[in-house]
Design brief:
single chain, 390 residues, alpha/beta, seven-stranded mixed sheet, globular, binds nicotinamide-adenine-dinucleotide
């Protein structure tokens, strides 16, 4: 069983799907690891470290795809919407591919993978269960995004974060507001607090209140209640426009009083709700910063420009995508542990085991036998039930 690790090819992507530290565990389970030369160097993992841990190297991407029974990637075709299609021609029938596939993006890219005869698994579809926790790549990346959002905000803000008493006077602490207290939001609260800011947070899920408070954040209570705020998978549920309208009205004052606003309110597969309008931005103090972690799905701030940093009304609005990729060493190390836990689950006795009674396999499997077989994906796109035996 050969596991192939190609170099990531999305522009400026510096992460790598497996790091040297996980290779001995995979080898012990009967998996050989083949790495494209230079795949880890930009994340801080030179080729020599892979070889020391027992991996083999190849200079040829085509050879890697040819030899690998399972290809593990960060951004597969679909999630890599710029250059990912180049890998389609290299994929071969019977091969398995594991990584980010953006399964609720467009069904076309998934069908293209299916057409290659590839069995693909999407890490985005990992169930949120205790059993699958070690394989939860979305949480790993969200943790990093939450941390980095605060670091970027602190670097951009013309103020310091902590309260200081000096001979030259007292400096008041920065006020950070986090909207959407999921994994990224909670990490943002923790990081903002460590830097000395006063952190407040709001989430429409009532369960978030206790989590925010346990991190030393103040929970912003709004006189509005979401209907079924949380779905069975633990994700926020989309609300109607009148709910969002009311949220904006109630959040206005808190946003205006904040030096930093980090928005991380997303709904899987849906456009992100606009929670910070241009009028709200205009009321913020000059020099304030908004980091919009929902930018890739339209953004929580009305003025966010996709993948850009802009200044409007003297407020810097950061809409950069994929902040996790800017911390490639730890993003790769967490992802590698998620992926190796998944591989150890998937490969038994030297073979990929497609046990459809296993929730982890059933939920993450996207394509098989030339077809998009994921029930969740098919339902999302309104496709009839798959013909393949799942
Ligand atoms: N294995 C597990 O059990 C597991 C794994 C990961 C996350 N979780 C939990 O699931 C929850 C969601 O985590 P996530 O980071 O994946 O969420 P997410 O990235 O899908 O969404 C981020 C947050 O935005 C909030 N949100 C969406 N629309 C909003 C709106 N209009 N106003 C205010 N808030 C809004 C959501 O409630 C959510 O908390 C968290 O409680 C997390 O701890 C559990």
């Amino acid at each position: 069983m050969i596991v192939g690790v190609p170099k990531e090819i999305y522009p400026k992507e510096r992460r790598v799907a497996l790091v040297p530290a996980v290779i001995p565990t995979l080898k012990k389970a009967g998996m050989d690891v083949l790495v494209e030369a230079g795949a880890g160097i930009e994340a801080g993992y030179p080729d020599t470290e892979y070889v020391e841990k027992g991996a083999r190297l190849t200079a040829s991407r085509a050879e890697l795809f040819q030899a690998a029974d399972i290809v593990v990637q960060f951004l597969c075709h679909g999630a890599n919407d710029k250059t990912g299609s180049a890998d389609l021609a290299l994929m071969r029938k019977g091969q398995a591919v594991v990584g980010f596939l953006r399964p609720l993006g467009t069904v076309k890219t998934l069908q293209e993978i299916a057409d290659r005869g590839v069995t693909s698994f999407s890490v985005e579809l990992m169930p949120r269960t205790t059993r699958a926790q070690s394989m939860d790549a979305l949480s790993s990346m969200a943790t990093i995004c939450g941390y980095k959002a605060v670091v970027v905000a602190a670097d951009t803000l013309p103020r310091m974060f902590p309260m200081l008493t000096t001979a030259a006077g007292t400096i008041a602490p920065a006020r950070a507001l986090i909207i959407g207290a999921g994994v990224a939001g909670l990490q943002a609260i923790a990081t903002a607090r460590r830097l000395g800011a006063v952190a407040s947070a709001y989430d429409m899920r009532p369960a978030a209140k206790e989590q925010v408070q346990s991190l030393g954040g103040r929970f912003v209570e709004l006189a509005i209640e979401a209907k079924d705020a949380q779905d069975a998978r633990g994700y926020g549920r989309a609300q109607d426009e009148s709910f969002y309208q009311k949220q904006r009205e109630l959040l206005g004052k808190t946003v205006a009083e904040s030096d930093v606003v980090i928005t991380a309110a997303v709904i899987p597969g849906k456009k992100s709700p606009v929670l910070v309008t241009k009028e709200m931005v205009a009321k913020m103090a000059p020099g304030s910063v908004i980091v919009d972690l929902a930018a890739e799905r339209g953004g929580n701030c009305e003025l966010t420009k996709p993948d850009e940093i802009i200044v409007e009304h003297n407020v810097t609005i950061i809409g950069e995508f994929n902040l996790a990729a800017t911390v490639p060493y730890h993003a790769s190390s967490l992802y590698a542990r998620n992926i190796s836990a998944f591989l150890l689950h998937l490969v038994k006795e030297g073979k990929v085991q497609l046990d459809m009674n296993d929730e982890i396999i059933r939920e993450t499997l996207v394509t098989r036998d030339g077809e998009v077989v994921s029930a969740r994906v098919r339902e999302f796109f309104g496709l009839p039930t798959a013909a393949a035996k799942v």
